[in-house]
Design brief:
disordered C terminus, 203 residues, 0% strand, 7 helices
């Protein structure tokens, strides 16, 4: 079951990576002005695509670490985002930078869920935090909220800190009652080992 699941992910990730590299090469050559800075940017993005795919493959096939899978997916999808933001979408990096945090939060959740087949607070809470912060900052970067960030932060900052404290207390209480919802500090187990531990019914 593990090999089938891993093979499906690789069958999607590797062809998509190769296709995106070829697409970006073609797009860059047809729209390039020949400037040194632009050429360096193209080379950097291609290396980012390749590195993201390689790290993801390394994690899925050999090391079986969710953190490595997360890093590989982030490199890959951030590269995709940069291509679209810089060349296709009518927006700028200055406006879209919080969305990178949203994507990172989603990929962190996906990486943890892929390994453990269930929601783990060790991945879920940071994921929600990244997504929430990214969406919050995007309200200012896209000018949805007209007031300055400093003005809003000074007004609701104390309430925000109180909500964080309450969330941490709730998380602590949940961890005390549901030990299996917390992932171990070291990820030495393989995907298959974790699957067996989770799927085995308790005596």
């Amino acid at each position: 079951m593990k090999d089938v699941r891993d093979s499906k992910l690789l069958n999607i990730l590797v062809p998509c990576g190769i296709a995106l590299v070829l697409f970006f090469l073609l797009f860059s050559f047809t729209n390039s002005t020949g400037r040194t800075q632009e050429i360096i940017s193209v080379v950097f993005l291609i290396l980012q695509f390749i590195l993201g795919v390689l790290i993801s493959v390394l994690s899925v096939r050999w090391t079986h670490r969710a953190t490595q899978l997360f890093i590989g997916l982030v490199l890959f999808f951030w590269g995709v985002m940069h291509v679209f933001v810089s060349n296709i979408l009518p927006v700028t990096i200055k406006e879209c930078w919080p969305i990178y945090g949203v994507v990172a939060g989603i990929l962190l959740f996906v990486s943890g869920f892929y390994k453990y087949h269930k929601i783990k607070f060790g991945f879920f809470i940071p994921s929600v935090t990244l997504v929430g912060m990214g969406l919050w900052y995007s309200f200012f970067s896209f000018k949805i909220i007209k007031k300055s960030f400093l003005t809003v932060a000074s007004n609701i900052g104390p309430l925000f800190m109180l909500l964080i404290a309450i969330l941490l207390v709730i998380l602590f209480l949940l961890q005390q009652k549901h030990k299996k919802l917390v992932f171990p500090d070291d990820e030495t187990g393989t995907f298959s080992d974790e699957d067996e531990e989770i799927m085995t019914p308790e005596d």
